[in-house]
Amino acid sequence: MSKALFNKVSEKDIEYLEKVVGSRNVSTEEADIITNAIDASSITFHKPEVVVWPDNAEQIIKILEYANRVRIPVYPRGGGTSNVGTVPLYGGMVVSLRKMNKICEIDEENMIVRVEPGVIYDALNKKLEKFRTIFFLQIHRVVLHVLLVGWWPQMLRVVGL
User: What is the pTM of this model?
Assistant: First the structure.
């Protein structure tokens, strides 16, 4: 895929994003750009043009519909722990899911937990303690403060103590 297929982020695009999520949740600051330019993969450093922190699914829908219409690439980001290369190869925007960190539902009987994508593994386990249950990642290396959005669903298990 070529950069020519995408447009650069314009001031008009920034203004739209600020209307959707608020100006405090949109950044072109170098520190935010660099922080969101890498993940845990071995893919090289690629800077986004803007970073956006939505609060809810409705904001994400508006962001994605807009980005599709104006041909700006979008890269979802959890905690930057992905090993598969979710880095902004073509510039565009990183949509950070960190603010979407609510535990929506705990169904003890069926051992199902519904969470937003920014929930941190360790925070979920703290909530599950009262049910004598943990959320277990069936992987070789576990990082307690990882965001759940970065893990493949088939690798996840809820285990009763």
Answer: 0.75
